[in-house]
Amino acid sequence: MNTYTVNNRTYEILEESKPYFLGRWFEKEVEGIPHMATTTDGAQIYFLIEGAESFTVNFTVITRITTPMFAVSVDGAEPVRRPITEPTVTLPDTDRHAVCLTMDGMSEAEGKWYEEIGFAVKGVTLSEGGRLWGIRPTAPLVFFYGDSITEGINALGTNGDSLSNSATHAYPHYCAEALGITPYYVGYGASGMVRVGWFNTMEKAIDRMSLRCRVADSPAANQEPDLIVINHGTNDGGLLTQEFTVAARDTLTRLSEVYPSVPVVYVIPLFQSQAEAIRTLMAEYPNGYVVETLGWPVAYSDGIHPCAEGAGVFGERLAEEIRSLGLI
User: Fold this and answer.
1) Could you tell me which of 227, 256, 184 has the C-alpha nearest to residue 328?
2) Contact 199, 244 (CB under 8 A)
3) Is 120:87 a contact under the CB 8 Å cutoff?
4) What pLDDT score does 1 carry?
5) Edge-to-edge strands, sheet with 141-146
6) How far apart are CA 250 and CA 266, in angstroms?
7) What was the pLDDT predicted at 2?
8) Quick check: 266 and 278 in contact, CB under 8 A?
9) What is the rounded distance in angstroms from the CA atom of residue 104 to the CA atom of residue 164?
10) pTM (2 decimals)?
11) Calpha distance 122→125 (Å, rounded)
């Protein structure tokens, strides 16, 4: 394996001229042109670049509500957000650099399930003299299933738009940084075990990225995780326990069928919604664990969604729990 390491992050070097897409990406034609598309904040693109002063991400705007934001991390530095209408990134020099692009924020109310509205990328163009290789992180891959709290809604504001929403300021990002793992986001606002929300239920999300696109059909999305984290239940809080339990048991059964040997950590919702039902269900689940959250000092932007500081506390506390369980 040919690898590249920078700032304690190691990547496998892949094919030249092809960025590596990781997360819930699928192929989609936009105006007759092939794109890689995703409706998931937190989906990532990785590449190694050298000899270039800059690169341009060839986005096509397909959203209808607000212009999405993406975040750029060079050599493991803190991600820097920018709108997709400003797609050219200047590099510090023409040396070799590992780049991670995170699809960072859009309105949670875009038509993600039926219309496949989200991010669409034709490719990456380099300035003169540049070369590019896809790179794959070698760190453990962790799936984060959840709702708007996982997605990063209102982490940076209270308007629910692309400026307020940020995957790189949500708890999976901070948990990943603390553990040294690679996050794979499956977060959709207002969704749950029963609630469909702005996408669909978790059971549907296990197998599908939209009504049309199956996870199994996408090399980028069809990955085997080392660990699965669930944080669903907040949007199911007003339901009868029996209704939640039936849906959650069916969901966990499907999860065990798709990923039979992968440990699963269920994080009790911060507001303790359906907490007792979750504890009972996970006691039945093979290789399942529960993380208690009562009393965590999480700050909120709007009374429901953690702000960036609160998400940082959430992510770091979760990392401590995962580490103490010996799962990473």
Assistant:
1) 227
2) no
3) no
4) 81
5) 182-187, 141-146, 227-231, 264-267, 288-291
6) 15
7) 97
8) yes
9) 10
10) 0.98
11) 10
* Region of residue 269 (phi > 0: left; psi between -120 and 50: alpha; otherwise: beta): beta
d(CA 302, CA 300) in angstroms, rounded, equals: 6
Contact 258, 284 (CB under 8 A): no
Cα distances (angstroms) measured from residue 294 to each of 15, 153, 243, 323:
46, 21, 23, 19
Helices (H), the chain: 148-151, 171-179, 202-207, 241-258, 275-284, 308-324
Of 142, 208, 140, nearest to 172 by C-alpha is: 142
- Coil, strand, or helix at residue 1? coil
Sketch out the chain's domains with CATH numbers.
Answer: 3-137 (2.60.120.260), 141-324 (3.40.50.1110)
Radius of gyration of the chain (CA): 19
Element (H, E) at 298: none
**Helical (H) or strand (E) element with 167:** none
Contact criterion met (CB below 8 Å) for 143 and 225 = yes
Q: What does residue 241 show for φ and ψ, rounded to 5 degrees? A: -55, -40
Q: How far is CA 59 from the centre of its chain?
A: 19
Distances from the Cα of 162 to the Cαs of 166, 209, 324, in angstroms? 7, 20, 35
Give the separation between CA 154 and CA 151, rounded to whole angstroms.
Answer: 9
Chunked in runs of 10, what are the mean pLDDT values of the chain (328 residues)?
Answer: 95 97 97 97 98 98 97 98 98 97 97 98 98 98 98 98 98 98 98 98 98 97 98 97 98 98 98 98 95 98 98 98 96
Q: Identify the bridge partners of residue 22 per DSSP, sorted by sequence position.
A: 44
CA atoms of 197 and 302, how far apart (whole Å) = 19
Name the nearest CA neighbour of 59 among 74, 69, 50.
Answer: 69
